[in-house]
Design brief:
27% strand, five-stranded antiparallel beta sheet, 565 residues, 22 strands, Jelly Rolls, alpha+beta, 46% helix, seven-stranded mixed beta sheet
């Protein structure tokens, strides 16, 4: 037997899928586990193979690969205590990915028949399996370029579908009421008039657009748990892009909040308390299982962190003592590339219009580690609504009075004047859009920046370090600010104030600043820990050198060098 019974029990206790079970159940589970050993490059199972087992990595590395256009695409690397093949325990579908051993690999195997024998006592395992299976499916279909090269998704899920149905009620009812009014106008109130048909023509496409946009909006919200962090991604299609995250090492506690409706439809809010703030994961399906998985991976990360810190201390000591450091053997990589990773290519400078229209109306987005905010689009509409109305009035007047204009001007003169007026209006709108687009507020990893630029004009830039922030307040001004959810965030820095004016969802902006402040504090704390580790290792190395010298000096006295004759 390659693995001792007690060691196998410890492996199951560390595995997130079974970590919540008590020792009595784990003892029963240990008794049905099998051990398999694979050599480097062995295929554990391939795409299309029958699914009959779940695997747990005890030692080595397993690479999960999907095929696309004849290429092997790597979507996850699995290390000690990670599981794969879990879909076999719930579904009869064949494998949709290939598992390949990299280096000598030892696996624990749970057969489907053994699982069903113990299913009644494995409380909570099926719920976790459903979450993990759904997550692995999503991770093969979607790509997130902001994930690090050695970062892999363990849990990925959207909000509960019930949340989508609640969101669809408003557009569906609004469209239904307007269509009924249109039919009443056409058939009863004003038969033979165009008003009913115009209302119906406008209502139908708008309702369809609203419903489709709501579905896309729901599909763009994700919760992701990786081997490094938890993240909550919220996107409002074409307008808003938000990603809140926290490293697993900063988690303090994991909680669950469930309403009466949530109890009825099995969804809950998972609340993750961290050193840098509170991360609320909203209306998640299978909230209990997700909370349990977060806690299990968090504890696993803490153990891994302690192990890495111990190795780092050992490496530093060996370096200071000029001793060779025996690193772990590197596993041989399989010829694959990451899912969603683009091959490096030649980047082109964007043209004027592509630069101008990039992120067209987005009010929040992240790029190169910085969060960028713009003023609410209501401010842009406020500036350009008069020229837009003027354009509409111009078209209406030209069409309705075309015959009258022909009596005064020639056809060519009318079109030339129309083009000139439209060009002037277009240039004015373009200028206002560029002016609105170039007023941005940024939160970088260490600074707050207020950037005010005029098209082809002056630039005003104000910045403040995150560590100098004393307080953060926000307020929504006026009825429009409450209706459209925008306001001003005021940051007190020393004796001055920095304001983010008319930003969308100011409470979210305030929370983003708090998050970045927490991350900055965490980085400084980690730097202090590294500095302290280096200093302690220098003390230990110095003590070691002195004690070594003291031991060798008596030997030198007992063995005096002979005098030369």
């Amino acid at each position: 037997m390659l693995i001792e019974y007690r060691e196998m029990l410890e492996i199951l206790n560390r595995t997130p899928l079974f970590a919540h079970l008590d020792d009595k159940v784990l003892n029963r589970l240990t008794g049905v586990m099998q051990i398999n050993v694979y050599r480097d490059g062995d295929i554990i199972f391939a795409i299309g193979d029958p699914a009959d087992s779940l695997f747990i990595v005890n030692d080595g590395l397993v690479r999960l690969v999907v095929q696309e256009d004849g290429q092997n695409l790597l979507f996850e690397d699995l290390h000690n205590d990670d599981i794969f093949g879990e879909e076999a325990l719930l579904f009869d579908d064949p494998r949709y990915y290939t598992a390949i051993a990299s280096g000598r690999t030892v696996l624990l195997t749970l057969q489907v028949e053994s699982y069903f024998q113990l299913k009644d006592i494995l409380i909570g395992v099926e719920e976790k399996l459903e979450v993990i299976i759904r997550s692995r499916r999503l991770s093969t279909e979607l790509s997130f370029p902001w994930l690090h090269e050695e970062e892999y998704v363990h849990v990925m899920t959207r909000r509960h579908p019930v949340y989508l149905w609640f969101k669809l009620v408003l557009p569906a009812l609004s469209g239904l009421v307007l269509m009924i009014l249109s039919i009443l106008f056409i058939t009863i109130w004003q038969p033979g008039k165009l008003l009913g048909w115009i209302l119906l023509t406008v209502t139908l496409p708008l309702t369809i657009f609203w419903i489709v946009w709501t579905i896309i909006d729901w599909r763009n919200d994700y919760f992701i748990l990786t081997n490094n962090r938890v993240a909550w991604i919220e996107k409002v299609a074409f307008i808003y892009d938000s990603r809140k995250e926290a490293p697993l090492s900063t988690i303090m506690s994991v909680g669950l909040e469930r309403s009466r409706i949530g109890s009825l439809f099995d969804f809950a809010d998972v609340v993750v308390q961290t050193y840098v703030g509170t991360l609320r994961l909203k209306t998640l399906q299978g909230g209990d299982a997700i909370a349990s998985l977060i806690e299990a991976y968090w504890q696993k990360s803490e153990k891994q962190t302690r192990k890495q810190e111990s190795q780092a201390m050992g490496r530093i000591l060996y370096e200071k003592l000029n001793l060779p450091w025996a690193s772990d053997e590197e596993t041989k990589p399989v010829s694959t590339r990451r899912v969603g990773r683009q091959e490096p290519g030649i980047s082109k400078e964007p043209g004027f219009f592509s630069m101008l229209l990039s992120d067209f109306l987005r009010l929040r987005y992240e790029q190169d580690g910085a969060i960028t905010y713009r003023k609410h689009w209501f401010l842009l509409v406020k500036r350009i609504w008069i020229p837009i109305l003027l354009t509409g009035f111009l078209f209406f007047s030209t069409i309705s009075g075309f015959d009258f204009l022909l009596d005064i001007f020639s056809m060519t003169s009318i079109f030339v004047m129309l083009i000139i007026i439209l060009f002037v209006i277009f240039c004015y709108i373009l200028y206002q859009y560029a002016d609105w687009r170039d007023d941005v507020f940024k939160i970088t990893t260490d600074q707050l920046i207020d950037l005010d630029r005029k098209p082809l004009g002056k630039v005003r830039r104000r910045a403040a370090p995150l560590e100098n922030v004393l307080s953060i307040e926000y307020e929504r001004l006026g009825l429009m600010g409450v209706i459209f959810n925008f306001g001003t965030v005021t940051i007190t820095v020393g004796n001055t104030e920095l304001t983010f004016d008319h930003v969308y969802n100011p409470s979210e902006v305030q929370q983003d600043i708090f998050y970045r402040m927490g991350e900055r504090i965490e980085k400084k704390r980690q730097y202090e820990i590294d500095t302290e580790r280096d200093r302690v290792s220098e003390w230990i190395a110095s003590y070691h050198r002195k004690t070594t010298n003291l031991k060798t000096k008596p030997e030198a006295r007992n063995n005096p060098r002979p005098r030369s004759k």
